[in-house]
Amino acid sequence: MNYDVIIVGAGPGGIFSAYELTKSNSKVRVAVFEAGHRLDKRHCPIDGDKIKSCIKCKSCSIMSGFGGAGAFSDGKYNITNDFGGTLFEYVGKERALELMNYVDGINLAFGGEGTKLYSTAGTKFKRECIRHDLHLLDASVRHLGTDVNYVVLENLYNHLKSKVDFFFDTPVETVEIVDGGYAVRTKHESYTAKRCIISVGRIGSKWMERVSRELAIPTRSNRVDIGVRVELPSEVFSHITDELYESKIVYKTPKYGDKVRTFCMNPRGEVVSENTNGIITVNGHSYEDPKRQTQNTNFALLVAKHFSEPFKDSNGYGESIARLSNMLGGGVIVQRFGDLIRGQRSTPKRIEEAFITPTLKATPGDLSLVLPKRILDGIIEMIYALDKVAPGTANDDTLLYGVEVKFYNMEVEVNESLESCHEGLYVIGDGSGITHSLSHASASGVHVARDIISKL
Ligand SMILES: Cc1cc2nc3c(=O)[nH]c(=O)nc-3n(C[C@H](O)[C@H](O)[C@H](O)COP(=O)(O)OP(=O)(O)OC[C@H]3O[C@@H](n4cnc5c(N)ncnc54)[C@H](O)[C@@H]3O)c2cc1C
Known about the structure:
By secondary structure, the protein is of the alpha+beta class. The protein has twelve helices and 22 strands. The chain has an eight-stranded mixed beta sheet. Strands 1, 2, 7, 8, 9, 10 and 22 form a seven-stranded mixed beta sheet that branches. Strand 15 (about 270-275) and strand 16 (about 280-285) form a beta hairpin. The longest helix is centred in the first third of the chain and has 20 residues, at about 95-110. The chain is globular, with a radius of gyration of 21 Å. The model has no long low-confidence stretch (mean pLDDT about 95). Flavin-adenine dinucleotide binds near residues 11, 34 and 68.
């Protein structure tokens, strides 16, 4: 065997596995294979000047490379079992929180000290929400910010590089069961290890599906979240974001009884586009450094779609909607809320004359040509509900960017150690379908590393 443990993917899941494996045992031989670049080589070519929109790089620097999809993210580590994944269903609620707090401690030790931990505990805003049938979920959130998040990753890489063999720009093509362990095959070579941790994230969803099929690992799937990213003047939400930073608010729409929720709130942040397997969707982030902050706050409004038999391809459904917006807008579409309500498309002139300056250059258009009626109605109802706790949300000039899609990887069947039906083969992070966040993905990495250490 070349290694004791091979890790596929250097996102938060893979990084925290590597960290925990090598923390107290320098003899453990660990290799990490990463399809994307080293952290310092990760650059998205969109500069807003020569390159204005996604050119579909072979390896997307936003989604791939050391740090994974989280590298240029807002670095919001939500310490909660209420959202961000269902790790607690495998490891128990208490343990899940312990793991997330442990990860928080490491982030602080590697450059995150001094960043703020926000909490919903005891907030008056919760009561205000309930009065309007809006439900605020409980969480503590460490906001590293895109800038500090990068520093933490840089420090983690410098710490790990002498302890772990990193193979960047090296996508793993297949994982095979061999005598006494696993062989991972890359384009030119094959490497073996007694144990293998797969942590390929959302970008690795199709790969994970294939590998699960090849290794006969049972899976199940049926959820996709579809919606828009809302951008408005930061003052509209400042009474909430100044206290809580991120608020996850859930609303059950009167018309269809669907749940709409706020997601990934970025006070004084910017809206960005994201490329998942060639499909352009929208996302957002913000900086801790006041100098890099904007006048606007953005957050997603998402409607969860669960499908029942016989339909199985929930991600395909989400992709088709995103493709439609790409077809009409050449990428992300932006529309003023007032235009949407009046049934008219936004034009460059209307966007220019608005009292808010968009932070993402998107194509003015009509989201009602893209989003299914049921989803759009839910979003509109939620905007009016939010207007009651954050007056100004339903203003004409509120910008809606579409579409935002949260693809969920199919859930891979694993046990409480996150080990698949094959002994020594672990599937963690967003690639397992169990986590959907930085904190849960990182915690899952620590969890499997501890399991492996206990068996070594
Ligand atoms: C713009 C943006 C902002 C976000 N903001 C937040 C936030 O503030 N808070 C939060 O909780 N979450 C946020 N998220 C989500 C968060 O980044 C993910 O939940 C988290 O990164 C998942 O970690 P992971 O290790 O499971 O997977 P990933 O971070 O996706 O990492 C997987 C890695 O595996 C690599 N890989 C895939 N396939 C292969 C292969 N075959 N061979 C080798 N390598 C492979 C990929 O290149 C990638 O680097 C954000 C995501 C984006 C895109």
